[in-house]
Structure formats: structure tokens, C-alpha cells
Amino acid sequence: MGWKSAQKLIHHWKILRGDNVMIIRGKDKGETGLVKRVVRSQNRVIVEGKNLVKKHIKQGQGHEGGIFTVEAPLHVSNVQVVDPVTGKPCKVGIKYLEDGSKVRVARGNGTSGSIIPRPEILKMRTTPRPTVVGPKDTPIDVVLEKTYDPTTGKGMPDL
């Protein structure tokens, strides 16, 4: 990737894996589907069952060859998140609630302005957190030990 294309990468993504999106340009225009994968290095997304292309795969040692139908990536500008209330494509905005939590909201003409929930698939971890205490884990009594007293300033290093 050259420096010109690296400048055009999206830094703040508003489309996430698991979002319900509508394709607004291309051969599958007007169809909706779930985002299967986000390719941030190319500004592209793969939508489940959409933008299907035939791929010729040569036979190898561990697999058979042939002509397969695969999902090709779409540029992120060709898809829009679907408003959960109206079912129409909308822009995504960011809003902070009273409790300080950050949420995504539907923006644009003819949209409801409702909150777009985070996809459930993002809450699942690919590798579960370890439940067994390992040799490099800090013991809980050391973690909970109070080492600084804010009233007296005891525990501050001498600088």
C-alpha cells in the first residue's frame, strides 16, 4: 500500500461486524445483509450472501480445485447501516447519554434518530479469558493492598 492510499484509510469506523446494512450501489443494490467481516486495511466490508463472485481455485495437496462461489468485499462507501425503526439506510452518528455512555444513533433525512445497538457478536470473545490462576498472575491480596493515603500523602515517591 502506498502512502496516498494509506492517507485515505478510515480512522473512525461506524460500521461494525454484525451490523445490518443495506447495499446502496452495485449489482446487489437495495438488498440488506449482515456484515461478516470488516477489512480495515482496504476500507472494505464483506456482507453475508451478497456480492457473490465465481473464483477458480487450483487443486492442491490438502484441497480439491474447481469453481467456487465466494463473497467479495464491498467498499464501505457502497453500504449504509439500516435504521432499526424505519428499516431504511441511514448515516451513523455518535451521542453521549446522561450516564456518560457512548451510543450510535441513526442520522439523516427520514430517519427515526433512534439508538443503533451494538451487535451481539462483538460481545463474544474468540478466545475465552483464563479462569485458572497462572504463575504470572498477581495475587488478589497484593492487588487490594492500599499503598497510598491521599490525606497524608504517604506512599508518594520522593522526586
UniProtKB/TrEMBL annotation:
Keywords: Ribonucleoprotein, Ribosomal protein. It comes from Salvia splendens. PROSITE patterns: RIBOSOMAL_L24. Residues 14-41 form the KOW domain. The keyword Transcription does not apply. This is KOW domain-containing protein. CDD domains: KOW_RPL26. GO terms for molecular function: RNA binding; structural constituent of ribosome. HAMAP family: Ribosomal_uL24_B (MF_01326_B). GO terms for biological process: translation. Gene3D superfamilies: 2.30.30.30. Coiled coil: none annotated. GO terms for cellular component: ribonucleoprotein complex; ribosome. Belongs to the universal ribosomal protein uL24 family. It holds the Pfam family KOW.
